[in-house]
Amino acid sequence: MSNRQPKVPFVNFSLQHQPIHSQIAEAMGKIIQEGDFILGQSLTEFETAFAAASGVKYGVGVACGTDAIALGLQASGINPGDEIIIPANTFIATAIAVLQAKAIPILVDCDPETALIDLTAAETAVTSKTKAIIPVHLYGQMVSPRQLLDFANRHDLIIFEDAAQAHLAEREGYRAGSIGKAAAFSFYPSKNLGSFGDGGMLITNDAELAEKMRTFRNYGAPSKYLHTEIGSNSRLDNLQAAVLNIKLPYLEKWNRDRTDAAQHYNTLLAPLKHKGIVPIANHSSSGHIYHLYVIKITEESSIDRNTLQEKLAQHGIQTGIHYPLPCHLQPAYQNLGNRGDFPHAETLCQQILSLPMYPGLSNTQIEQVVRAIVLSLNC
Q: 148-181 burial string, b = 16+ CB within 10 Å, else e?
């Protein structure tokens, strides 16, 4: 099947881009005509619009989501040697960003039903050196804001949200990025709001933090050739900002399409629970924006995750694994923990499988995916 067009691709960007192709081309053409490529009007407009859509005052565009965390932590007052709690099953970029900020990532386990950080486990990880917690709103579902605020208040910690997968996600009256001191987003092409390359943003309600972030992203210079901080070159360019600005008004509709697709998956997969096919739990109702639709293949299944993935590929169904190894079992990061330290994260990494999910995914295609799962289990 590898040389054939899949019956159901994992993602399909064309369904989003074709209807707005002319708008994007016009916006990009204007920037090319004007030569306004770096730190220009399109970026300012998108920073303002995305921050407002997320329910905060300020946005600062940077080169990628990793930089949004790393530079954002520094702008938030994190110092070298400070400990920051993160979930063990996040994408490695979360840990990399903490290390780039010269802080120490402290891993904790996840909830086996939602795959989100386990705040009960996090209680035992707090020390006198702990300064912040980074809740990762994984797969498009937010960590409970109320529980998170209670936790941070008890321990006097900064909340710095990793919202790379949670554009306009909601829970308990909060939008992703509006809970804590600041939040980081990624605009990698496959995100719910994706650019045509890399891109990221920090958002915050703190004017001083936002201004410091603008300095850090631009060589540590608040004005040209005056360098008051040891900064970096990390700027969301105007072409990407223009693309994102065109796409932003469509984001809520695209998110609803994902939620509708997830509900259809849920209905069709419900009878397979006793056969070991269990969707990651949604505790956010319609606030979950399903960047990914993830199932667990548990010990009740007649086949393991890797075998199911292979069989689905034979049926023309593309899938993914997000993520196959927890941070502490990555070869370069084994100093973060030992095998067995985070059992839920380790088990999930062996069980999870991401099914096709994107705006425009049809009910017929979803039914094809589920039918292929049933055939794979029964063969």
A: beebbeeeebbbbbbbbbbbbbbbeebbbbbbbb
Mean pLDDT of the chain: 97
Q: What is the C-alpha separation between 99 and 95, in angstroms, rounded? A: 6
Q: Report whether 116 contacts 141 (CB < 8 A).
A: yes
Q: How far is CA 301 from CA 82, 103, 298, 346, in A?
A: 43, 41, 6, 18
Q: What is the largest CA-CA distance in the chain?
A: 68
**Coil, helix or strand at residue 161:** strand
The per-residue pLDDT for range 57-67, each reduced to its tens digit, is 999 999 999 99
Q: How far is CA 165 from CA 45, 189, 207, in A?
A: 22, 12, 25
Predicted confidence (pLDDT) at residue 309 exceeds the cutoff of 80: yes
Flag whether pLDDT at 16 surpasses 60. Answer: yes
pLDDT at res. 58: 98
Partner residues linked to 352 by β-bridges: 296
Residue pair 311/372 in contact by the 8 Å Cβ criterion: yes
Element (H, E) at 13: none
Which pair of tokens denotes residue 364? 């017929």
Kindly report, residue by residue over 146-161, the tens digit of the pLDDT. Answer: 999 999 999 999 999 9
Report CA-CA distances (Å) from 230 to 42, 75, 79, 91, 97.
26, 11, 13, 27, 16
Residues 6+ apart with CB under 8 A from 52: none
